[in-house]
Design goal:
- It is a single chain.
- With 733 residues, the protein is α+β, with helices and mostly antiparallel strands.
- It is built from 20 helices and 29 strands.
- Strands 20-18-17-8-7-6-5-2-1-29 form a ten-stranded mixed β-sheet. Strands 3, 4, 21, 22, 23, 24, 25, 26, 27 and 28 form a ten-stranded mixed β-sheet that branches.
- The longest helix is centred in the N-terminal third of the chain and has 27 residues, at 58-84.
- It is globular, with a radius of gyration of 26 Å.
- The two termini are 50 Å apart.
């Protein structure tokens, strides 16, 4: 059973604790050492403000990479680690107290420190350089006032060993359940609940040489994340490192990208990587035990202290927490304590995240996959030799095949324990399929290559509980008939805005209207214009389309089952649920919802005929982590629709407080198409721009390009970077 959290909304607060309380000043010897290291690193900023970092060693390059990230958006670098340290309450107060407790139960700082001590020399050098790069930035930029972390430790990256936006797996356990267990009450305070069934993730396409115009493989990289979650960067060394792509703020490896030999695209996976267990708890001699294989085993108790800010003071709160051999106790269900077995951080995962960026080709990349430590990602791959490949998940525990692992397991017996990890060859994968293309859009691997996909009957259910998505249907439709692909053609298909869900939903609505609504009724007169528009609509989201507005606003008011995107074993997927709903929906489940949409539009705009671009907007007015939006300020109309209804270019927007319009906050962020020939050719695009500083010209310089789907040429080779250089410097200059 797996459920991935979305990152919590974070708010940067300034509070009245002196900077000096937390500050750890560098001594003269440290400063001299860092100054020498900085001189070994060159950063070239190109004409889009993208940092190209060059170092003699990998460690030099990591130093420069983190320095450059801090220049672009230090507050996001810092906030990611405040969250992973379980210290959000120190800046946000009690409102996130149990979110911090959840993190501390799942990600143990002491384990990270221990891993750092025993890390291989090559990894320890990178970890040290990570900390050095950030600390040198803070030394050189005293005007930057951190919210909390004034000194970064080299073990911090071992808290967050995957670059995924949803890298925490809780097997469906909620923060509310955790709070109820450890506080004794169910009040919905002191935590922010993660949203369930929020479709995050990505699209990835790999096209083999026989389907491309040049005879070279092409990779399409299209993560869907919270905007500004990852910048674009290149990092190179004389030790074989030369990777370009998206890096999650504060991490030292390219998460989605490419080198001269190959490229990797990750989509969020629903592979079962975490399980929950019902424990049988007994009290004996005033001590707690759990039953396991007929024996009583003492519960491990651990005191966890979390500080929260209140009226300018840090107040400690201590929790007595419990662990079984499965993991931390996280909830109580049906009178039984529930523990969680998961793998939310590991040194092997961090090693794998780095090693794959230096892969020389297919065999090398397969060796990286054989580390089997990636818990949250599927991988779409292509290389210069023409290989394309897909792996569904990577870290997959071996389990008793007779059990349904989406359920709560019996914690009293060893028969429900994990039995090691599946070899990669046993997991769902596809290498060089005969159809010459692969795709994944957070969907089942059993459509990854159309008719040539892996067969479900050959794999265990927990390896791929993922259902089909409407984006998956859209991608298969396009790639099945495509040929002679170029970078531009792949991008064009990646920007196909067909909202495939409405091929099922709109006919159900219009048929119900025609059958059940009399022409002389008031409701007929009220809705006939909208129904006529929807009947004529081609299901493509367009900026000037009224039908797009009506359909999207209407769909969000229908039965929530059609928005359920993550499935467990035996459940219908989103596409199946939508087809079932459309087939059986009553007039009461379809028609009043359209009335409501039209009435709302009339109340806001005086008309029910509002083109999609008028209300679906892109706005970036500040570099804050939690953005606010304002109808009176400049914004751009966006034609793309929500991924949940099938749009390949994902654009998730919502109404904000006091706004009449919808503003985007999630979806297409870093997008890139790469061709692996004798020389790399690539094009890319970012939401807004690469800098988080509103005063920078690179804060908004890609906004109109983002609106239009207009990509820039990637500058991969140093001679091209130098020709387009805006600034060349050593860190600290």
């Amino acid at each position: 059973m797996k459920f991935s959290t979305n990152r919590l909304p974070l708010l940067l607060l300034v509070f009245c604790i002196p900077f000096s309380v937390f500050s750890q000043k560098l001594n003269t010897q440290e400063i001299e050492r860092l100054e020498k290291m900085a001189k070994k690193v060159t950063i070239i900023r190109d004409n889009w403000g993208i940092a190209h970092v060059y170092g003699k060693t990998d460690a030099d390059a990591v130093f420069g990479m983190l320095y450059a990230q801090c220049e672009d958006d230090f507050k996001r670098v810092e906030m990611n680690y405040i969250e992973k340290l379980g210290r959000l309450s120190e800046i946000k107060g009690q409102s996130v107290l149990y979110n911090d407790l959840e993190i501390k139960l799942l990600i143990d700082s002491e384990d990270a420190k221990d891993d750092y001590k025993k890390a291989a020399p090559w990894l320890k050098k990178l970890l040290n350089s990570y900390a050095d790069g950030i600390n040198f930035y803070l030394y050189k930029n005293p005007k930057v006032k951190p919210a909390l972390l004034t000194h970064f430790e080299p073990w911090f990256p071992l808290l967050w060993t995957d670059g995924s936006i949803g890298a925490i797996s809780t097997a469906g356990l909620s923060t509310g359940e955790l709070k109820a267990f450890y506080s004794g009450n169910t009040d919905k305070v002191a935590y922010i609940e993660r949203e369930k069934d929020v479709q995050t993730g990505s699209n990835g396409f790999a096209i083999a040489p026989s389907k491309t115009a040049s005879g070279n493989a092409i990779l399409y990289i299209n993560p869907h994340t919270t905007f500004y979650f990852r910048p674009e960067i290149q990092v190179s060394s004389e030790e074989g490192l030369n990777a370009y792509g998206a890096v999650t703020w504060g991490q030292f490896f390219i998460y989605q990208g490419f080198n001269e030999n190959c490229g990797w695209m990750h989509t969020s996976s629903n592979v079962d990587v975490a399980d929950i267990y019902a424990e049988k708890i007994t009290t004996k001699n005033k001590k707690l035990f759990y039953e396991y294989d007929g024996k009583l085993v003492p519960l491990t108790e651990k005191m966890i202290t979390i500080k929260y800010i209140e009226d300018g003071k840090l107040i400690p709160k201590t929790f007595k927490t419990y662990y079984t051999n499965h993991g931390p106790v996280m909830a109580k269900r049906d009178g039984k304590w529930i523990s969680l077995k998961s793998n939310n951080r590991s040194m092997k995962s961090l090693e794998q995240s780095w090693i794959r960026t230096k892969s020389n080709g297919f065999e090398d990349y397969k060796k990286a996959m054989d580390i089997k430590a990636n818990t949250s990602n599927n991988t779409v791959y292509a290389d210069k030799e023409g290989n394309i490949a897909y792996w569904h998940g990577n870290f997959i525990p071996i389990r008793d095949k007779k059990l349904n692992w989406s359920k709560v397991m019996d914690g009293t017996t060893s028969t429900t324990q994990w039995k090691g990890l599946h070899e990669v060859a046993e997991t769902v994968h596809s290498y060089n399929p005969s159809n010459a293309w692969l795709q994944n859009c957070n969907s089942t691997p059993y459509s990854v290559a159309g008719e040539n996909s892996p067969k479900e009957e050959n794999y265990l259910p927990y390896m791929a509980p993922d259902g089909e998505s409407f984006r998956g249907l859209n991608a298969v439709r396009l790639l099945s008939k495509g040929s002679n692909y170029t970078l531009d053609k792949v991008i064009a298909e990646g920007y196909d805005t067909k909202l495939t869900a409405f091929e099922f939903l709109i006919p159900a609505l219009t048929a119900s209207f025609d059958k059940n609504i009399k022409k002389d009724s008031a409701i007929y007169l009220e809705l006939v214009e909208a129904i006529t528009l929807l009947k004529k609509w081609d299901y493509y989201a367009k900026e000037n389309s009224v039908a797009t507005t009506l359909a999207i606003e209407w769909a969000y008011k229908l039965n929530p089952i059609i928005q359920k995107v993550y499935t467990d074993e035996g459940e219908l997927d989103q596409v199946e649920n939508t087809i079932e709903f459309a087939k059986n929906a009553t007039p009461e489940q379809l028609i009043p919802q359209l009335q409501e949409v039209i009435n709302e539009l009339k109340a806001k705009f005086g008309s029910g005929n509002i083109p999609w671009g008028e209300i679906n907007r892109f706005q970036r007015t500040s570099g804050d982590i939690d953005l606010t939006y304002d109808d009176t300020k400049e914004s751009l109309p966006i034609s793309y629709g929500p991924a949940i209804w099938g749009s390949l270019p994902a654009y998730k927007s919502s109404y904000q407080k006091d706004s009449k319009k919808r503003y985007g906050f999630n979806g297409n962020s870093f997008v890139c198409a790469v061709e692996f020939g004798t020389k790399i050719k690539a094009k890319s695009l970012l939401a807004g721009g690469n800098s988080g500083d509103p005063k920078s010209k690179h804060f908004y310089d890609q906004a109109i390009m983002y609106q239009q789907g207009q990509f820039k040429d990637v500058l991969f080779y140093k001679e091209d970077v130098q020709k387009n250089a805006e600034k060349t410097y050593h860190p600290g200059q």
